[in-house]
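Fill in residues.
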């Protein structure tokens, strides 16, 4: 378990003393990286807590408070603390130790925030919306296509705190990837912030590619031979899921632009160039989402037009058959009237003549409707 391991076992973490008690409990158990999808036991909000120096993970000695003191005393390295859906009590000690602003702490605990970037003194607070594609065998009117979560990041000169909400968006593989590149990790907490932003935006692109496949399938079904019978609920469901994706992607543009252009003490100029690259990737995702939205509108309009055409064809067929049936109905109705003096009423061949006239009239109407495409 991490150096800040048993946060859930301590209900009062308002100060450093509480954290020291937690750390003493944590040292009795082995470290577990809960961020890794294969090693994520439920029941703890702590993902991991690691100290890095010159881009290399250092051996854990002492508790979280001691690690922070060592980093600040030496002026080198930083601490990366990861949490998953912490409670108020669990986060109180962490907020006190790192002097986090109460408003940012409230946002990190409550979640359901828009992507944003806020500055509190020398600390940056960033919110990222994570997304993942929900696999499904067949798209229906109730299929969940996009699932969202959140990652909040506190960045200081000597610390990074990540708070994750949702059951996806694990940062374990990202941590391992960063540790394999000590040169990049040595650039400090801003390098971690960039890696998280890049990871989130890359997932946006992956999800948009997967959604594109669903849109292609719906488009194929709509323009198939029986496209008018396609369930329009599938199209509306895709539009709703695309709106959920849009809410995650579009608001992130301004925070990334600010990180790439506005100077900040904790973000070195060399890191800002990396954020410009992430911003370019985000722009691509936004353009794809906009194009998908327009394409779905066109597909929906085409489907409605197909339904209208199919209904018109049905009405023409009904009208044509009604006209054909009207001929014998009219003749039979005429001869059903109780008059003594009617043409051919007592003629031996009168019945056959009437049947022949009716048949000829109906055949003529049928051929005419068939030739005009009504039948």
């Amino acid at each position: 378990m991490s150096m800040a391991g048993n946060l859930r076992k301590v209900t009062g973490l308002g100060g450093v003393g509480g954290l020291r008690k937690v750390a003493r409990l944590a040292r009795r158990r082995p470290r577990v990286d809960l961020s890794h999808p294969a090693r994520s036991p439920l029941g703890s909000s702590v993902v991991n807590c690691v100290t890095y120096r010159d881009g290399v993970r250092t051996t854990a000695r002492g508790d979280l408070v001691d690690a922070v003191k060592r980093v600040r005393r030496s002026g080198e390295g930083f601490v990366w603390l990861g949490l998953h859906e912490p409670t108020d009590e669990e986060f109180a000690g962490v907020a006190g130790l790192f002097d986090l602003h109460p408003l940012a702490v409230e946002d990190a605990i409550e979640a359901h925030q828009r992507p944003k970037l806020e500055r509190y003194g020398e600390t940056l607070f960033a919110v990222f919306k994570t997304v993942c594609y929900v696999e499904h065998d067949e798209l229906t009117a109730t299929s969940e296509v996009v699932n969202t979560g959140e990652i909040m990041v506190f960045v200081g000169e000597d610390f990074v705190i990540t708070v994750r909400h949702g059951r996806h968006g694990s940062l374990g593989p990202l941590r391992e990837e960063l540790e394999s590149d000590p040169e990049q990790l040595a650039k400090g907490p801003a390098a971690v912030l960039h890696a998280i932003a890049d990871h989130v935006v890359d997932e946006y692109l992956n999800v948009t590619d997967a959604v594109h496949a669903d849109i292609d399938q719906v488009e194929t079904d709509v323009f198939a031979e029986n496209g008018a019978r396609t369930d329009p609920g599938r199209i509306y469901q895709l539009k709703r899921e695309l709106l959920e994706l849009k809410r995650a992607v579009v608001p992130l543009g301004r925070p990334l632009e600010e990180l790439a252009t506005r100077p900040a003490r904790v973000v070195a100029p060399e890191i800002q160039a990396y954020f410009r690259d992430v911003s370019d990737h985000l722009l691509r995702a936004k353009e794809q989402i906009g194009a998908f939205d327009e394409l779905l509108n066109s597909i929906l309009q085409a489907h409605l037009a197909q339904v209208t055409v199919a209904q018109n064809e049905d009405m023409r067929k009904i009208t044509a058959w009604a006209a054909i049936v009207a001929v014998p109905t009219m003749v039979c109705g005429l001869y059903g009237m109780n008059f003594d003096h009617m043409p051919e009423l007592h003629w031996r061949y009168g019945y056959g003549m009437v049947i022949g006239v009716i048949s000829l009239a109906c055949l003529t109407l049928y051929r005419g409707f068939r030739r005009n495409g009504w039948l």
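The CA atoms of residues 56 and 180 lie 9 Å apart.
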